[in-house]
Amino acid sequence: MRRKLVMAVLVTVCVILQSTVCPMIAIASIKPNLLIILTVSFGLMRGKRSGMLTGFCCGFLTDLFFESVIGLNALLYLWVGYFSGFFYRIFYDDDIKTPIFLISITDLVYGIVQYILMFLLRGRLQFFYYLGRIIIPEVIYTLLVTIVFYQIFYHINKRVSITEKRSAGNIV
Amino acid sequence: MIKRNDTRGNKILLFFLSMLCVALILISFLGGEGLVLPVRRISGFLITPVQKGINQMGSWLSSMAENYEDVAVLREENAQLKERVDSLTAENSQLIQDKEELDQLRELYQLDKQYADYEKVGARIIARDSGNWFQAFTIDKGSNQGIKKDMNVISGSGLVGIVTEVGGNWATVRSIIDDNSSVSAMVSTTSDQCIVSGNLKLLDEGELDLVRLTDPDNKVHVGDKVVTSQISERFLPGILIGYISELNNDPNNMTKSGYLTPVVDFRHLQTVLVVLELKDYRPESTTDVITSAGSFSVEQESET
């Protein structure tokens, strides 16, 4: 219950930050993608199920606010969360190299899929322009932001896990 | 902990949620907006106040930073501004005279509905689109202040965009620089019709696409004013969009296309005005509008 509450607050805070603070810190009108950091982090630290649910909620909330096609971002983030859950057992979660690697891969794929669905289908063919101007800069900026935010998410997760274990011990 | 990552349950969950997403996508494509709108209203009602607060904090911080600006710079600016006030006062008195004349002439022509006369409401931008692909934003006024879908949004100098969705005290606006936006427009001097559409590629240069300009007499030039057209379905006529910055012949030699520089500075936009008047669009009367516009331009030409 406590974890669910924490996750709900985290997702809401990230969605709000993404639409208010990120435009303020945008460089060359490129914003970092906090939601993908959140989704990948929890997929990596807590497994597929957590990643999927976090991703779905993040995507659904952004869809509600801005996209006229509801469900598209939810679907993309859902798969991002599921994919990052594969690395749950393989890597230690206090190592920052894995999340950085995973976030750049998923953000790249996310950008390309968005380009295909929203732009290519409308006849905007210059893929390499959009790759160089939007997708790659977003990946790089997101990476820099990851270094800070992953630590925050890591500590929040650790806190919640410790209190969970403690209360479980009390009952036994 | 181990059970949580068991693959079978996860696959079922993944499948179920994916199907849900696909269903939602289909619903929004088939135009079932009515089903999702209540959910949007509720989430907007809950989250907008927070966004408003964060935004106010941001502007407070930036105003703090501005306080430390150099006093000398401010003094210099003050002197310049005083000079400017003098020249503007002189200009203003002349303009007042002109306006009186204009009012009389307008009465004669019964053109009393120019866009200066529309009822407007000011709003503050509190959130922007979360991705990097589109240029939509949220404002802090909604249906409680009389805003409806498809109302035009302007800034002091010109057209900003159109309201796409409305909640109680928020509304989302798609700006004209958005890649999905296209506005039916015309050149104000010759009344030649064209279409102005946003393009992500031109965003860095601060320009818009100008396409399908019909200019059979070659009278349109670079620097001409472009305003919203009478035949537009949703935009009120005569709102300034920008100035033509480049013009080329299309391969078909019938139409022209080029670029347009908008008058609104979209990068530093913080407050906007929403025009509280919807375009009264009746498809059957479009032909009337076109002929009246045509006769008007003919009259102008014959005068000059």
Secondary structure elements and pairings:
The complex is a heterodimer of chains A (172) and B (304).
Chain A: H1 2-24, H2 34-46, H3 48-65, H4 72-85, H5 97-118, H6 127-171
Helix pairs in contact in A: 1-3, 2-3, 2-4, 2-5, 2-6, 3-4, 5-6
Chain B: H1 7-29, H2 33-67, H3 71-109, E1 120-128, E2 136-139, E3 152-154, E4 159-166, E5 171-175, E6 182-187, E7 193-197, E8 208-214, E9 225-228, E10 240-249, E11 255-262, E12 271-275, H4 286-303
Antiparallel strand pairs in B: 1-2, 1-12, 2-5, 3-4, 3-12, 4-5, 6-7, 6-9, 7-8, 8-11, 9-10, 10-11
What is the terminal-to-terminal distance of chain A? Answer: 18 Å
Number of helices of chain B: 4
Query: Biggest sheet of chain A: strands, sense, closure?
Result: none
What is the radius of gyration of chain A?
17 Å
Instruction: Kindly report the spatial arrangement of strands forming the biggest sheet of chain B.
Output: 1-2-5-4-3-12
What is the CATH architecture annotation of the domain at 182-264 and 278-303 in chain B? Answer: Beta Barrel
Percentage of residues in helical conformation of chain A: over 70%
Question: SSE order of chain B, as H and E?
Answer: HHHEEEEEEEEEEEEH
Strand residue percentage of chain A: under 5%
Radius of gyration of chain B: 24 Å
